[in-house]
Amino acid sequence: MSATNQPPLLDVRGLTTEFVTRTGAVAAVRNVSLSVRRGEKVAIVGESGCGKSTLALSILGLVDRPGRIAAGEVRLHGRNLVGLSEREMKKIRGNVVSLIFQDPMGALDPIQTVGAQLIDTLRRHQPSLSHKAARARAVELLREVEVPAAERRLDDYPHHYSGGMRQRVMIAIALANSPALIIADEPTTALDVTTQAQVLALLERVVANHGVAVLLITHNLGVVAEFCDGVQVMYAGRIVERGPTEAVLAKPTHPYTQALLESIPDPSRRGDRLRAIPGMPPDLSAMPTGCAFEPRCFHGHGREICRTRQPIPIAIETAGGPSLVECHFAAERAARAGEITAS
Ligand SMILES: Nc1ncnc2c1ncn2[C@@H]1O[C@H](COP(=O)(O)OP(=O)(O)O)[C@@H](O)[C@H]1O
Ligand code: SF4
Ligand SMILES: [Mg+2]
Predict the structure, then answer these.
(1) Residues 67, 53: Cα–Cα separation, whole Å
(2) How far is the CA of 297 from the centre of ligand 2 (A)?
(3) Are 218 and 45 in contact (CB under 8 A)?
(4) What is the DSSP letter of 58?
(5) Does ligand 1 come within 6 angstroms of the Cβ of 320?
(6) What residues are paired with 332 via a beta bridge?
(7) Does residue 49 have its Cβ closer than 6 Å to ligand 1?
(8) From CA 193, how far away is CA 203, in angstroms rounded?
(9) Residue 100 burial (CB < 10 Å; 0-12/13-18/19+)?
């Protein structure tokens, strides 16, 4: 579904989240802006440590000390969530926006049955719902996420479920109060490959049935290609490239995106050789003054401008729509790749 003519559901503007350490504050999310429209599915990709989870937690007001949002806004349905009390945020979490973590065991309460947790979630946001009605709805939700023998399994504890089934329960909990947005942070990374595929296919189906928007943090490019309308590429706390999925995956403009895609297995390009990105993401407490990717960049390494000046986002017009690329050479690279540069 194309949702490009609707106002954004989620509108993150200039968000900076930092962790205060003994040696000073380190910004894990640096001046990030992104938007998700109603029903839109947006992927966030990037190496480990690039700030993806911190961004997701910041959106939901879940960054714990020593972390804090230092600047920016998180607008949901136009309302800025930054600075809201925990009481206000609790009304929003699980209701307007839900989060699915990588590790369902960490998110589920081990000493409560799955049914009790689903019923709690339902009644927290719908207090007028009777226990009986909530239980009936909980069974429906477990059926929807294809947990076999749903009625009986409601009374089981999380440890009675397999990893894949637990993640299905998390999807059911996330869906319980019909949120407008689900943020899924590497929801299948801890599962075996077959189970990953099944859980992702299920997520795709339920999301389509409910018309819910998704911000999906993932390393699975097959899923990004098939499922997501747009991609945001994160490096050292910034979004360095964003655009329509096809454009970003088929013709990446930022050297980091290109290197990242070459380093992740893509089921649609079986046989391609994987190339690890040389070096490591920068130490956030000692950021380079210029482009954060410069020490690893095959295009800009050693160039004066890359070493000394932080690139600003450059708009690129692609066949699939506009992209933004934070690289001094974005226009040149896009022109070479056959894209049209807008500014
Ligand atoms: N609790 C914390 N305390 C201090 N620094 C943290 C904490 N959590 C994350 N960070 C910093 O934020 C960076 C980004 O982490 P994270 O958001 O988990 O990245 P990703 O999800 O992309 O792997 C880490 O490399 C680390 O420097
Ligand atoms: S600005 Fe320079 S170092 Fe950074 S990605 Fe672009 S070419 Fe590479
Ligand atoms: Mg993470």
Answers:
(1) 12
(2) 6
(3) yes
(4) H
(5) no
(6) none
(7) yes
(8) 15
(9) buried
pLDDT of residue 271: 60
Give residue 46's pLDDT.
Answer: 95
Task: Supply 301's token pair.
Answer: 């390494």
How is residue 331 written in tokens?
């226009």
Q: Where are the alpha helices (DSSP H) in 183-329?
A: 193-210, 221-227, 245-250, 255-263, 304-308
3-class state of residue 44 by DSSP? strand
Alpha-carbon span 275 to 296, nearest angstrom: 13
CA of 185 to the centre of ligand 1 (A): 13
Mean pLDDT of 252-269: 86
1-26 pLDDT tens trace: 444 556 799 999 999 999 998 888 89
What's the rounded Cα separation, in Å, for the pair 246 and 244?
A: 6
Name the residue at shortest CA distance from atom 12 of ligand 1. Answer: 28
- Sheet with 213-217: list strands edge to edge: 97-100, 181-185, 213-217, 41-45, 230-235, 238-244, 321-325, 314-318, 340-341
Please confirm whether the linkage preceding 255 is cis (ω < 30° from 0). Answer: no
